[in-house]
Design brief:
This protein has 520 residues and is an all-alpha fold. It is built from 21 helices and 2 strands. Strands 1-2 form a two-stranded parallel ribbon. α13 packs antiparallel against α14, α13 runs antiparallel to α20 and α15 runs antiparallel to α20. It is globular and about 75 Å long. The two termini are 41 Å apart.
């Protein structure tokens, strides 16, 4: 019976046309997966600084946790290539990637619940006790997510060498992954402004997205066929080594450029997302700020998902590099517009004169959401193209070296992403300390430790109103949140346009030659 089950789970397909079952199960499973990642990577600092668990020496505890996050994320990034090589070496009857995806999802969900659920119910998990608990389970979270992430990302380029097929699956995956990010961006701010309070909002959200994560990845494991492995070619090739990533990075210049671009891109994106909630609080007040963030999420998901429905058709007619140039330029301009308009100073706005601090007025919101719509449509299209550029380096690597090595190459994407998230923590710390916002954050954290969420919200409103007396803080936070990311986008734009020269026509020619090699 066990043999029949493993045989059924391990079934494969050999065509370059990706089966509908694989396409839909794989992409939809990204919903819960990305929600879990977004909750930890984007909203973790908000949870730590505002949930009220750091009682006592707040600044020392916050600095310790920042150091833990940075150190662990660097360790996690270095760990990614090792996981990629392990996947390449292992041969399971149930598949090359699926066992790691399934095991990673189960163990990672357990660590997410430990991070967000346990502190809410354990009285000892406060102050330095919380710091110690966090140190253990944040490390385990990173290790278990790596197991899932490397396998999940590496499975995509292995599905087919047909670029159109991969483009359709990639665009569909982007829809569900961004849907996961939207889900957590909506759930936490929405619940935080209810009677639940911010502490309960996080553990309730952790249970919801943890359930979706496990269900999606379990369905993938049991019902999603992988592409058949070319065991004869793998036998002839050199066995994967832990130093392969370094060699590929040195010899494959396109991989090298894409890793650097992804690194810079994600520093920009994480910095914007990580500080945006605080900028909104300073713009419209505590309660209205969470309300605005929830509404902002609706605009964001529409702006991100809708373009993905049309990207395969667009890329059939427009070269990817042209799409990248147009969309990246639009992003940079929209960031600067968001800086000018996104956070009225002192409760007034020369563009939206009807704006009143403590409320979310239609006049202010309308133009803000138009800017956000443009910004996130461009963001969605740009990231889709960047992902495709990275996928195409697999065939380029096979062309120059004779080895595909999807797992090793795609381990570099989370490698770059996690290094970027480490830099984002440094940027967040720099923003909070250089502007003096750390004092505001401490006051909010202390208030949220009160037993009455409504009283905490009232006191937090007063804290934000008092912060309006410091215009340097408000403008400083906006610079760190928007201007610095815009400069980083400009750097990524220059690097990719200048050095990535794998055109669509050249890629097609490479794929044709690789097919001829296999037939020979």
């Amino acid at each position: 019976m066990f043999e029949r089950l493993t045989s059924k789970i391990g079934r494969t397909y050999s065509d370059e046309i990706i089966p509908k079952r694989t396409k839909w199960i794989y992409t939809t499973s990204g919903l819960g997966r990305d929600a879990v990642y977004a909750m930890v990577s984007v909203f973790l600092i908000t949870f730590i600084t505002k949930a009220g668990y750091l009682d006592g020496n707040y600044e020392a505890m916050f600095a310790t946790i920042s150091g833990i996050i940075i150190g662990y994320r660097i360790f996690d990034a270095v760990n990614d290539p090792f996981m990629g090589v392990i996947i390449e070496k292992c041969h399971f009857k149930t598949g090359k990637y699926k066992p790691w995806i399934f095991l990673g999802s189960l163990t990672n969900t357990a660590t997410v619940l430990a991070l967000f659920l346990t502190p809410a119910f354990c009285t000892w998990c406060r102050g330095w006790g919380f710091v110690a608990w966090f140190a253990v389970f944040y490390l385990l979270w990173g290790m278990t997510f790596t197991m899932n992430d490397i396998a999940f990302c590496s499975m995509l380029p292995s599905m087919s060498s047909n670029e159109k097929q991969r483009t359709r699956v990639t665009s569909l995956l982007m829809i569900f992954e961004n849907g996961g990010s939207f889900m957590i961006s909506l759930i936490v701010p929405f619940m935080a402004q209810t009677s639940l309070g911010i502490q309960n909002a996080y553990w309730v959200a952790a249970i919801i997205i943890g359930f979706l994560f496990v269900v999606g990845q379990t369905a993938l494991f049991f019902f999603c066929p992988e592409h058949k492995r070319n065991l004869a070619a793998e036998a002839k090739a050199e066995p994967p080594r832990f130093r392969d990533m370094i060699e590929i990075f040195k010899k494959n210049r396109l991989v090298r450029i894409m890793v650097i671009v992804i690194f810079v891109w994600f520093i920009s994106l994480f910095s914007l997302e990580g500080l945006m909630q605080d900028v909104f609080l300073l713009a419209v007040g505590y309660n209205a700020g969470f309300q605005l963030m929830s509404w902002f999420s609706f605009v964001k998901i529409g702006a991100i998902v809708i373009p993905m429905l049309f990207m395969p058709r667009i890329l059939d007619k427009v070269p990817k590099m042209k799409v990248f140039k147009i969309c990246m330029s639009t992003m940079i301009v929209s960031y600067l517009l968001f800086f000018i308009y996104g956070a009225p100073l002192g409760g007034t706005s020369f563009i939206a004169p009807s704006f009143v601090f403590g409320t979310v007025s239609p006049a202010y919101v309308t133009l803000l959401f138009i800017i956000a719509l443009v910004m996130y449509v461009a963001n969605s299209c740009t990231y889709n193209v960047i992902y495709l550029f990275m996928e195409n380096t697999v065939e380029y690597n096979e062309y120059i070296s004779g080895r595909r090595q999807e797992s090793v190459i795609f381990s570099m994407r989370p490698f770059a992403t996690k290094f970027a998230s480490s830099i984002q923590i440094l940027i967040t710390d720099a923003a909070m300390y250089s502007t003096g916002y750390i004092a505001v954050s401490k006051a909010i954290n202390d208030n949220n430790n009160l037993p009455d969420p409504e009283e905490a919200a009232r006191l937090n409103e007063e804290v934000i109103r008092n912060a309006l007396n410091n215009p340097g803080m408000i403008y400083g936070m906006r610079v760190w949140c928007v201007v610095v990311p815009a400069i980083l986008l400009a750097v990524a734009f220059f690097l990719l346009v200048k050095f990535y020269d794998l055109s669509d026509a050249k890629y097609t020619s490479i794929c044709k030659e690789l097919s001829e090699r296999k037939r020979a």
